[in-house]
Amino acid sequence: MLGYMERLTAAPTIEEAWPLHCEAMAEYGFNRLLYGMTRSRTRTSLGNRDDFLILTNLDADYTDPFINQGLYLHAPMVHWALENTGAGSWSWIRENAHLLTPEEHKVSQFNLSKGVTSGYSISFNGISPRAIAAIALIADPDVSQEAVDAMWENRGREIVVMNNILHLKVMNLPYEVVARKTLTKRQRETLEWVGEGKTTQDIGTIMGLTPATVEKHLRLAREALDVETTAQAVAKASFQNQIFLVEGIGSN
Prior knowledge:
The protein is 50% helix and 12% strand. By secondary structure, the protein is an alpha+beta fold.
């Protein structure tokens, strides 16, 4: 576990951190993982799908229907994660089968058809009311939930700690979301100066650009982030750890 923590905390990118975590969880019998995070949650939805961060080693045969076609919206353990913090056994689904909606039963049948039948979900503490993140740890199809629960009795605490470390690491690394252009170095820099309270004229002087060029960079940044205002662009880029970066991490 110490070796895992050393390697994970030293990983400079999500692309390096995620395989390390998948390898570590496989040692506990969880060979398939699905991590999801959004910072645009509202009272009635999880926000725009394009703003999600999804990490998984599941194949497209599962992820396309579940994520891209929206089955996750009716997944029982997703609903559990929205209402709880910490670790939850998938035995919760069986124990509450009589309370599930027809849509939730449909997702359960889909999971059964894909061999996603036993495991644990961990819902992480949110940093704000609009943020929610969780991970599904999926056991092999031939492993019963009872066997997973028995293993969890002995190893659950360390598994939770390891997943919390992953989550905290991910929250502090730049990431790309679906259908989004990566901000250029100039776009990031202009947004950073706006975040510092500088005017367009100020930014032009600091960066050696004309105000018109500064406005162009800000407009392109708004388009890349799919927002309407520069203030929204600063907030969204900050949430995604795209600005105020250490040079060389996530920069062009």
